[in-house]
Amino acid sequence: MSDVYAVIMAGGRGERFWPLSTEDLPKPFVRLLGPRTMLQETAERLQPLIPRERILISIGAVHEALARGQLPGLPPENFVVEPVGRDTSACLGFCALHIERRDPQAAMLAVPADHHIADGEAFRRTLRKGMENLSGATAVVFGIRPARPDTGYGYVEAGAAAGAGEALPVIRFVEKPDARTAARYLAAGNFYWNSGMFLWRNTTLLELFARHMPDTYRGLERIRSLMNGPHPPGELAKVYAALPRISVDYGILEKASGLRLVPAEFDWDDIGNWTALERILPADAQGNVAVGPLHALEADGCITYSDAGTVALFGVSGLVVVQARGRVLVCPKEKAAELKRLVGGLDPERR
């Protein structure tokens, strides 16, 4: 385990958590469920299994100062700044080049910055099992046992383990299914939610780029040469901006063979929008969940968040009510997943 580097991907925008999460303060940097931000909680969960000197933060330039301020204990060189956002394939390819400079034979663990995992020890225990199963595998995928027939996640179909303690062979990745298909996957018992957490040898990842994403690999080769010597100002950013915008799931993992899946031993939620709070927080007798003070009368099934005083509900049902950063959101719970539409129509100064 001494050669495993963790990459925390902190480039998300989190528009579905407006108004708490905004362009200048995206979801990884907000305090949603406690005194620490989601980025801080992610970094803390990795330790001591992966020490801070081997935790890298992949971050956009506009949020670099914010990330450094929230994680002052990380070495300054551990913040890998993307010139422009190009999705997870470019992000992880760029980080692979940075890890290569430190240890060409290292392994990379990729984790998102904005997931909710309450049991840190179970999380680290699952990571250890993944590390134990990396030998002989192209990559290890961490799968989540479905708790419901959710249509918002991608799924991974897995085969049977060859022996006790061994990871499961990955049969295929599946796009987000319709409700009937998701119910069938849940009943089958061998489909897992794709957590977006992966483990591979750094050299293997670069080989996978060469095989399955040759255009990206040629760009990464050019970036490597620029990193290793003097180059014209702006040249690296220009090359990076030309990389294809595609996730590592679609670009590589769906095409690769020899993948193994380790089922998570922890409860997990990707906190996709405000309705996720119902799955995480205890409800009152009327089914309301709240962060911050709430006074409810003849109100049921609501979700509230306040960073500035009491939210009062009277005679309403099934609402999301958020008071954060000087803005107020009120919407039906069934519209919470569509907040991008609302935020996209706001004047920039009101977002």
What does the secondary structure layout of this molecule look like, with pairings?
Elements: E1 4-9, H1 38-46, E2 55-60, H2 64-70, E3 79-82, H3 87-102, E4 107-112, H4 120-132, E5 139-144, E6 155-158, E7 168-174, H5 179-188, E8 191-201, H6 202-212, H7 214-227, H8 235-241, H9 248-253, E9 259-263, H10 277-280, E10 289-291, E11 294-297, E12 303-306, E13 311-314, E14 319-324, E15 327-332, H11 339-344
Helix pairs in contact: 3-6, 3-7, 6-7, 7-8
Write up what this structure looks like.
Strand 1 (about 5-10), helix 1 and strand 2 (about 55-60) form a beta-alpha-beta unit. The protein is globular and about 65 Å long. It has two domains: about 5-265, Spore Coat Polysaccharide Biosynthesis Protein SpsA, Chain A, CATH 3.90.550; about 275-350, no CATH class. With about 350 residues, the chain is an alpha/beta fold. A five-stranded mixed β-barrel has the order 5-8-6-7-9. About 30% of the residues lie in helices and about 25% in strands. Helix 3 packs across helix 6 (about 200-210), helix 6 (about 200-210) packs across helix 7 and helix 7 packs antiparallel against helix 8 (about 235-240).
